Amino acid sequence: MAGGMKAKIQDVYGSGDRGKFSLKALLHSRTVVEKDGYVSTGVLTHAEGDMMEIELTEFRNFELGDPVNLTVYSPVGIHRLRSSVIAKANGALAVLFPERALAGLEERRESPRVDVAVQGKLKHRQTETVTGKNDERHTFEIEEEFELVTRNMSDSGIGFKLLFGGPKLDVGDVFDVTLALETQFPCRLEIIRKDDTGQREGYGARFVDLSEQQRRGMRAFLIREQVGTYFRLKQQKLSR
Question: What are the phi and psi torsion angles at 236 (to 5°)?
Fold first, then answer.
C-alpha cells in the first residue's frame, strides 16, 4: 500500500511524462486544508477564475487571510498547493486558485472575465477647424466626457458601452478613462473590438501600460467580485 502511494506521488510530481488533464478532473476530489498544524478535510466543489471553493464542516476554524496548504486527492493524482482564504460561507471556504502550481493542467486561462457593471467616464478629444475672416483657418481641440458602463472586466481589459449616445469609437483608438471601483481608477484603454448590440454599440478594450500597483488593485477588485457573485448565486439556488 505504501509503495503504491509513493509511486502515485512520484507520477504526479516527477519531471517525466505525466499527461495533461482537465480542470473538471479535480472537482469533487477529497481535499485536505491545513494551517498552523490544524488539519481539516473537505471536498473541492468549484474552481474557476481566481477562486476555488472547498466544502468542509470545520470552516469556522479558518479566518480570512489565513495562509493554507491544500492537498487534493484527485483521479489524476495528488496535488499539493499553497493558497490563502479569501471568503467564508456556511459550510465552505473560498481560497485563491493557484492555477500555475497545477503542472499538467490543460486549461490556461489568461485573464478570466467577470460580469460586472462598473460606471466610468471616457475622455474624448477631437479637433475642429474653423474658417474665419480672410479665409484664416483656426484649429481647436475639444475635449468631452462621456459616461460608460462595463459589461465585463478582466485584468487585461473591459467590455463596455457608452451611455446616452456618445461618439463612434474605432478600433485602435486610445482614450483616458476613469472607472469607479472602490476608489477612482484612472487608466488608458485601446479599442480592440466593436460589437453591435442592436440598441447601443458595445466595445472591447484592453488596458494600456497599467502600473504594477494598478494591476494589483484591479486583480483585488476582480477577486472580490468573483467571490461575491459566486456566493450570491449559490445562496439563491439554496433558497429556491
Answer: -65, -40
Residue 92 clears pLDDT 60, i.e. is over it: yes
pLDDT digits (tens, 9 = 90+) for 181-240: 989 999 999 999 998 765 668 999 999 999 999 999 998 899 888 888 888 877 777 676
Cβ 154 vs Cβ 112: under 8 Å: yes
Cell numbers for 86:
479569501
Residue 106 belongs to some domain of the structure: no
Q: What are the strands, taking DSSP E only, across the chain? A: 29-35, 38-48, 51-55, 67-74, 77-89, 92-96, 114-115, 119-131, 137-153, 157-162, 174-180, 184-195, 202-207
Q: Domain with 36 in it: what CATH number?
A: 2.40.10.220
CA separation for the pair 106, 124 (Å, rounded) = 42
Provide the domain count of the chain: 2
Main-chain dihedrals φ then ψ at residue 129, nearest 5 degrees: -115, 125
Asked whether residue 39 is domain-assigned, the answer is yes
Q: Are 94 and 28 in contact (CB under 8 A)?
A: no
Domain that holds residue 19: 2-101
CB-count exposure of residue 199 (10 Å: 0-12, 13-18, 19+): exposed
For 96-123, the pLDDT digits (tens) are 987 667 767 775 556 678 889 999 999 9
Question: What's the predicted TM-score (pTM) here?
Answer: 0.72
Spacing of C-alpha 185 from chain mean position: 16
2, amino acid identity: A
